[in-house]
Amino acid sequence: MSVITTIDDLKKLHKRRTPKMFYDYCESGSWTEQTFRDNESDFDKIRLRQRIAVDMTNRTTASTLIGEDVAMPLALAPVGLTGMQRADGEIKAARAAEKFGVPFTLSTMSICSIEDVAEHTTKPFWFQLYVMRDEDYVDNIIERAKRAGCSALVLTLDLQILGQRHKDLKNGLTAPPKMTPPVIADLATKWRWGIEMLQTKRRTFRNIVGHAKGVENMNSLSSWTAEQFDPALDWDTVRKLKEKWGGKLILKGILDVEDAKMAAEIGADAIIVSNHGGRQLDGALSSIRMLPSIVEAVGDRVEVHLDSGIRSGQDMLKALAMGAKGVMIGRAYIHGLGAMGEAGVTKALEVIHKELDITMALCGRRDVNTLDRDVLLVPEDFEGRWV
Ligand SMILES: Cc1cc2nc3c(=O)[nH]c(=O)nc-3n(C[C@H](O)[C@H](O)[C@H](O)COP(=O)(O)O)c2cc1C
Ligand SMILES: O=C(O)C(=O)c1ccccc1
């Protein structure tokens, strides 16, 4: 591979070095993948306004997210099975994020545990919660997140039931993988992945071991999720969890103005406008299209963040200019991890940061915190009504 300069370069390396089952799990959406595709292509529809002869010395990307200082307003999104993309993947991603100065979010469905990550980092990280039927698990994991000093709870509300993901079903996705003949043949070409995996003991879902039954021996991720996740979760549950946690609360998976209003009313510190990277309701609109109306409705009451589709610093700038206070990236950093481990996550952050900085300058702006719609050219029908 020649010099790496884009997220797409990392994606190609990720594909080459990672078992097909896990690469496909990352690089796919649900059903027809319409929403997954829209997330990226809708960013492409927005263009930038070139401005000239503006003093561009002393530029800054420094900002805050829920009151925490960040090198740029971006956080690493919670990504389940990160430790299957690379051995100890959550620890590696958390370390890269910490060194860069952006928050890392640890998924409930992680291979490394809360304690594993806390032990290998020095700054607080965010913890993402999936609500399961087993109430003891919820109480227990909230306590563990508190003990580990997590500075925010990211409560995901768009996945009490898993969207249909055809690739995962066809690949027989599990963690660790079952050693079927096609899996063995695939692993033969991904030997570095295998060696690193043999050198760590972290190969199953360590946050939920001992609570969610059958986790060490699941037949498929989808049937296991259906058994364990609590389909009864509602706004009442959210209120109770907020009380139980007592700290900063971020609600993830908001894609509708009415839901955003509920989140603001409940007193969330931030919401993440998200369609889960096109992995849940296929046919939902892209996050960037939904963002302006949500910012207009609740932007003065709650921090509005956005994820789904961000693959560059230009995408990030567009989201900020459309009104987001910050963004999250999922696949963009997982490609880095799968390509080059911790160094790859750092590379992904550097690529995005550089793109953000240069784009800002060429748009005649110096401060990431003052980006607004004036830097964009948005097609007239971009936010057109869908009835
Ligand atoms: C492989 C993968 C696993 C994910 N697992 C989780 C998860 O465990 N919890 C969660 O809240 N979101 C999860 N997400 C969604 C991300 O947090 C985020 O919303 C999404 O990746 C953003 O879209 P992007 O990948 O286009 O940046 C996952 C996404 C991917 C790609
Ligand atoms: O894959 C996902 O998007 C996700 O959030 C998830 C859900 C259940 C188990 C593991 C990951």
Structural commentary:
With 387 residues, the protein is of the alpha/beta class. It has one domain (7-368): Aldolase class I (TIM Barrel, Alpha-Beta Barrel). The protein is built from 16 helices and twelve strands. The strands form three sheets. It has an eight-stranded parallel sheet. Strands 1-12 form a two-stranded antiparallel sheet. A two-stranded antiparallel sheet has the order 2-3. Helix 15 (313-321) links the parallel strand 10 and strand 11 (326-329). Helix 1 (7-17) runs antiparallel to helix 16 (331-362), helix 13 (257-266) crosses helix 14 and helix 15 (313-321) crosses helix 16 (331-362). It is globular. The site of benzoyl-formic acid has 8 residues, from helix 11. FMN binds at residues 78-80, 107, 128, 130, 156, 252, 274, 307-311, 330-331. The active site is at residue 276. Keywords: Flavoprotein, FMN, Oxidoreductase. Its cofactor is FMN. GO terms for molecular function: FMN binding; L-lactate dehydrogenase (cytochrome) activity.
Short description:
With 387 residues, the protein is of the alpha/beta class. The protein has helices spanning 7-17, 20-26, 34-45, 82-85, 89-100, 114-119, 135-147, 166-171, 181-187, 191-198, 221-228, 235-245, 257-266, 287-298, 313-321, 331-362, and strands spanning 47-48, 63-65, 68-70, 74-76, 105-106, 126-129, 152-156, 249-254, 270-273, 303-306, 326-329, 376-377.
